[in-house]
Amino acid sequence: MKQSKNLDNLKFVQAMLREIRQTVHADGERLLTYLVDMAYLEASDRIRANWALRDNGKSDA
Questions:
Q1: What sign does the dihedral 22-34-48-4 (CA atoms) show?
Q2: Residue 54: CB atoms within 10 Å
Q3: Mean pLDDT along residues 46-61
Q4: Measured between alpha carbons, how far is 58 from 44 in angstroms, rounded to an integer?
Q5: Contact 38, 14 (CB under 8 A)
Q6: Cα–Cα distances in Å, from 40 out to 1, 6, 22, 56, 61?
Q7: Mind listing the pLDDT tens digit for each residue in 8-17?
Q8: Helices (H), 1-61
Q9: Model confidence pLDDT, tens digit, residues 23-44
Q10: Can you give the pTM of this predicted structure?
């Protein structure tokens, strides 16, 4: 249950970061765009890691 809530939160953060990135990019804020991109990639990596952990748990069961 906790892992599912964590994954939901990560997906929410990823979606918000995508929107923020579009906004700062449209405003020409190159440094902010880069920083938000890095945060977006980190959230994406954590989502993938969460899925990998979940998939490993299913194959062991």
A1: negative
A2: 12
A3: 77
A4: 21
A5: no
A6: 24, 16, 12, 24, 32
A7: 999 999 999 9
A8: 2-26, 30-60
A9: 999 999 999 999 999 999 999 9
A10: 0.80
